[in-house]
């Protein structure tokens, strides 16, 4: 079989809650942002629920009574808090155990890979570079260039950049936003159970499968 006839397989990953555990950094920055803008801080559980959304949508869900100026200020303060944590070396976004091995194995098996995330492009590139993962991904889609999940724009752009059709791709994520985005784009949705939304919620949002561990995910993708 020549390279030209090898079927393309595209795996698009969410970042926070799927590749890395960024919840601590997100909760800390959100609490600082809410305090700076004079809003009552949400609890950590509420913040984890909105990981994956673009910042304005996340703030509006956490503070539905806030006006447009309060939302704008809170978003700006969140970005400032996140940048400060990164600059000081306090930003913690550890990889989930087993993720590097999954990416290496998929690459060896001929998969093309990308990321679709609620992070900014700056934040995503810094995160991936810090973990030595940048070379794995041919397409990076972020919240600063697209509507928030679950709108399918990020995933549609990833398909276009990778020259893939929806039926050749899977979207891998930990939230119902990821699953709904995949369904809207006509892409198979695969949930992971180590993130921020439960398995039942992922299935309810359209997941064809929910992996319990990274090894489970790898076996599903390679053998399924």
UniProtKB/TrEMBL annotation:
Q: One biological-process term from Gene Ontology?
A: DNA repair
Keywords noted in UniProt: Hydrolase
Instruction: Tell me which Pfam families the record gives.
Output: HAD_2
Cellular component per GO, a single term? cytosol
Q: Which GO terms describe its molecular function?
A: phosphoglycolate phosphatase activity
Output this protein's name: HAD-IA family hydrolase
Question: Whose protein is this, by species?
Answer: Novosphingobium flavum
């Amino acid at each position: 079989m020549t390279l030209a006839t090898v079927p393309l397989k595209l795996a698009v990953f969410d970042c926070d809650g799927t590749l890395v555990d960024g919840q601590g950094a997100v909760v800390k920055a959100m609490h600082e942002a809410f305090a700076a803008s004079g809003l009552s801080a949400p609890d950590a559980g509420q913040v984890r629920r909105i990981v994956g959304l673009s910042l304005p949508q996340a703030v509006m869900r956490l503070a539905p009574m806030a006006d447009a100026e309060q939302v704008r200020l809170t978003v700006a303060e969140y970005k400032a808090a996140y940048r400060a944590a990164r600059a000081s070396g306090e930003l913690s976004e550890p990889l989930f155990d087993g993720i590097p091995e999954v990416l290496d194995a998929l690459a060896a098996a001929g998969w093309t890979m990308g990321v679709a995330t609620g992070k900014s492009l700056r934040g995503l590139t810094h995160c991936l570079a810090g973990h030595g993962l940048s070379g794995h991904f041919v397409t990076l889609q972020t919240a600063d260039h697209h509507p928030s999940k679950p709108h399918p724009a990020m995933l549609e752009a990833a398909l276009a950049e990778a020259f893939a059709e929806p039926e050749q791709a899977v979207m891998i994520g930990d939230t119902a936003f990821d699953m709904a985005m995949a369904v809207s784009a006509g892409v198979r949705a695969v949930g992971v159970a180590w993130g921020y939304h439960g398995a039942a919620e992922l299935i309810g949002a359209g997941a064809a499968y929910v992996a319990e561990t990274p090894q489970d995910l790898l076996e599903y993708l390679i053998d399924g």
